[in-house]
Write a structure and sequence with these properties.
CATH architecture: Alpha Horseshoe
Order of helices and strands: HHHHHHH
Distance between the termini: 111 Å
Number of strands: 0
Number of helices: 7
Number of domains: 1
CATH topology: Serine Threonine Protein Phosphatase 5, Tetratricopeptide repeat
Oligomer: single chain
CATH superfamily: Tetratricopeptide repeat domain
Radius of gyration: 29 Å
Helix content: over 70%
């Protein structure tokens, strides 16, 4: 009886280890396929930028991680419109961590576009920084503890402050609250 019990326990442990090994192998195969698809998407993005046709062949058939990698590659390549469309579709379709990552990356793309080399056009630059601020605020509503988004929002606010600028004329209320010293004041020298 004891020998049979020991063999049964050993067989159970061996089957559990084999199941874990098979599970790990399938996850490794899936990760390898995703990495190959991401590498292909990055090379496709470079080729697409050169040909000015950066539309994916079948966007619905690609894994969302591949679409995120494609959008990042397009953003780095300078195809901002196509990258923004991919980011927006990811944000809309995946409200989980992947969508928040896409939202953060989209905000970063707008911030780079508004504050970087594209800053020569002032109105477009302010508009892009405004878009970045909107994306960071959306992200902070979904994930208030995201310190990277807080930092980037602060940076965007520093680049394009939202406080109204002081006009040359004082406010009407300030004009009426002017105090004049008493001419017989003894505190003057």
């Amino acid at each position: 009886m004891t020998r049979t019990l020991i063999h049964a326990v050993f067989a159970t442990v061996a089957l559990a280890c084999a199941g874990f090994a098979v599970s790990s192998w399938t996850r490794l195969q899936h990760a390898t396929e995703l990495n190959q698809a991401i590498a292909a998407a990055s090379s496709d993005a470079r080729e697409a930028r050169a040909a000015h046709s950066a539309h994916p062949a079948h966007p619905n058939e690609e894994a969302p991680q591949v679409l995120l990698a494609r959008a990042t590659a397009l953003s780095k390549a300078g195809a901002y419109d196509t990258a923004a469309r991919l980011y927006e579709s990811l944000i809309h379709d995946h409200p989980d961590d992947l969508g928040r990552t896409a939202l953060f990356d989209l905000g970063n793309m707008y911030l780079r576009e508004g504050g970087g080399e594209g800053a020569s056009n002032g109105i477009r630059s302010i508009a892009m920084i405004g878009e970045a601020k909107a994306r960071y605020r959306l992200l902070l509503r979904a994930s208030p503890g995201d310190w990277d988004a807080r930092y980037n929002l602060e940076r965007a606010l520093w680049l394009a402050p939202e406080t109204p600028t002081a006009l040359d004329e004082p406010d009407v209320k300030e004009q009426h609250n002017v105090k004049v010293r008493d001419p017989e004041s003894k505190d003057l020298p």
